[in-house]
Amino acid sequence: MSESAAPAERHARVHELRLVVTAADYDEALRFYRDELGLPERAAFSSPDGRVTILEAGRATLELTDPRHADFIDEVEVGSRVAGHIRVAFQVDDSTATTARLAAAGAEVLAEPTRTPWNSLNSRLEAPGALQLTLFTELGEPDGPEKPEELGEPEERA
């Protein structure tokens, strides 16, 4: 391959992103994510050394942000900086109903669903496994005159 080949062509393709969470209360975490959030079970294994369950979470992406933009996201969704360096976001059909269901299942609601400048309805929860979750529902194209770069849309590459 030439030196000018795109990075994806120079390296092996990644086929799956798997977020591995060690939960002190495995049963509570499994109930919450599988039974309440609705992530289908792909596989489960147990041995004398412990248990693991692999749950399907739809399409995976890795969202990288710098600290200033992370501050901005927290300000929009919660009103202040609350997330650590990792936050898990799930796109759901109805963030309002899902937030209520997960709160009833034991998650702490940090912020009720809020319409964002990028036109999604986002809520924030503290969930089992010590994970902070954003639940988001896409609302379509923004109504206002904002430009994509003002909304934090991806930058065009040269």
UniProtKB/TrEMBL annotation:
Residues 13-138 form the VOC domain. InterPro entries: Glyas_Bleomycin-R_OHBP_Dase, Glyas_Fos-R_dOase_dom, VOC_core. It comes from the Bacteria. Residues 144-158 have a biased composition (Basic and acidic residues). SUPFAM superfamilies: Glyoxalase/Bleomycin resistance protein/Dihydroxybiphenyl dioxygenase (SSF54593). Residues 138-158 are annotated as: Disordered. This is VOC family protein. It comes from Streptomyces coerulescens.
